[in-house]
């Protein structure tokens, strides 16, 4: 390559680096913290209301994930969860509502392919690996705990 071409390439690379937007880390972290905290606070509020209306604490703790999953799925279905996620970023990956969103989003996206090859097959594309490794890890930990229990260590 000629000297002039190398200079043009170097100038282009410098201009490209200058044009790349700089991430706003503090703002992103703060929004994720606030929105994730708000989702958790809503969950705590729902739990407190269930208990206040006479449902015993153990039953309320069973109902809370069902309600939070429903809310996450509903907000995903009507397109609100995606708007919240684009505003808050990682704050919407609070486990229960994030899981609900991860299940419903692909199902909605692939429903045009049918219920078997679309919804059912694609529903676990995002959540599937999380489930596989989460369940696999829990089985391994359970086996280790069981063996340690047989040995009298735990």
Description of the structure:
Keywords: Membrane, Transmembrane, Transmembrane helix. InterPro entries: Spore_V_AC, SpoVA. With 154 residues, the protein is mainly α. The protein has two domains: 25-122, no CATH class; 127-154. The protein is built from seven helices and no strands. The longest helix is centred in the first third of the chain and has 28 residues, at 25-52. It is extended and about 75 Å long. The mean pLDDT is 87.
Percent strand equals under 5%
Low-pLDDT residue intervals, each spanning 5 or more residues: none
**Helix vs. strand class:** mainly alpha
What Rg is obtained from the alpha carbons, in whole angstroms? Answer: 23 Å
Supply the number of structural domains. Answer: 2
Could you tell me the mean pLDDT?
A: 87
Transmembrane segments: 29-50, 62-81, 87-104, 124-148
Keywords: Membrane, Transmembrane, Transmembrane helix
Protein name: Stage V sporulation protein AC
Organism: Clostridium saudiense
Descriptive terms for the model:
154 residues, mainly alpha, 2 domains, 81% helix, 0% strand, Spore_V_AC
List the topology elements.
Layout: H1 3-19, H2 25-52, H3 57-77, H4 80-88, H5 95-109, H6 115-122, H7 124-150
Give the gist of this structure:
By secondary structure, this protein is an all-alpha fold. It contains 7 helices and no strands.
